[in-house]
Amino acid sequence: MATGTLPDAGQILNSLINSILLVDDDLAVHYANPAAQQLLAQSSRKLFGTPLPELLSYFSLNIGLMQESLAAGQGFTDNEVTLVIDGRSHILSLTAQRLPEGYILLEMAPMDNQRRLSQEQLQHAQADCRSRLSAWPGPRD
């Protein structure tokens, strides 16, 4: 185990690739790490206090379902949330959990590349199956 001074939580959050947001029950932003600021294409001043849906052209998250899960004391995950910002579509995995202070911690991880790779792998597998099936002899009269 390393000895010495550990970085503070702020330094760690600022270094993450995933977008981290701290929102209230109205989804107003109270904290956004640099990855979230970049994703949302907004400065921290414009983000803070603004409800997340107002920052987006489109948001596929079922907010009611998320709030129901959180109210029941459960976490919430949606593996395919689409948001459109400045005309650009982003597919994200979103995880939400209630914090003791009454805030909601949202973590959003990009899925665009992973989804594209999965689709390419599926298309390759389908093409492989088709070529193998075409090699089988057909019914004979």
UniProtKB/TrEMBL annotation:
One of its GO terms (biological process) is regulation of DNA-templated transcription. Its EC number is 2.7.13.3. InterPro entries: PAS, PAS-like_dom_sf, PAS_fold. CDD domains: PAS. Keywords: Transferase. SUPFAM superfamilies: PYP-like sensor domain (PAS domain) (SSF55785). It holds the Pfam family PAS. The keyword Lipid metabolism does not apply. It is an enzyme of class 2 (transferase). SMART domains: PAS (SM00091). It comes from the Bacteria. Residues 7-75 form the PAS domain. GO terms for molecular function: protein histidine kinase activity. This is Nitrogen regulation protein NR(II).
